[in-house]
Amino acid sequence: MNQTNSTTSVRNLKTMLQYQDNAIVSSMLVKNSSGNATLFAFDGGEGLSEHTAPFDALVIGVEGRAEIPIAGVPHIVGEGDSLIMPANVPHAVKPLGQFKMLLVMIRGEKSS
């Protein structure tokens, strides 16, 4: 027998979150001890300055494009593209116009 809970549904990432003028909007889609998934919508001109995070993360481009420098090396992420950001390595998000991305933070031990 196939069971689903009441929050299970198919949703379109592009339409789940709307841009707001001069802002970065985010919505956490799931969070547990293994990690989290957060949808972001960056208005043009908004971004995240260089920082580090203690866990590996996966960025998936949902709409638009952004430059994401990792350790000073620029990477262009567009709709449907993915990029791994290693733990403890400086990175930033510099949208090239409006940009939506899904960020999946992966907590836990690295395999050896």
For this structure, the quaternary state is single chain
Number of helices: 1
What's the alpha carbon Rg, rounded to whole Å? 15 Å
Biggest sheet layout: 7 strands, antiparallel
Beta-strand percentage? over 45%
Any low-confidence stretches, pLDDT <50, length ≥5?
none
Shape: globular
Number of strands: 7
Distance between the termini: 38 Å
State the helicity in percent bands: under 10%
Mean pLDDT: 92
* Helix-strand pattern: HEEEEEEE
Précis, in short:
This protein has 112 residues and is mainly beta. It is 4% helix and 50% strand. 16% of the residues are buried.
Description:
Strand 4 (56-67) and strand 5 (76-78) form a beta hairpin. This protein is 4% helix and 50% strand. It is globular and about 40 Å long. Strands 1, 2, 3, 4, 5, 6 and 7 form a 7-stranded antiparallel sheet that branches. The chain contains 1 helix and 7 strands. The chain has 112 residues and is mainly beta.
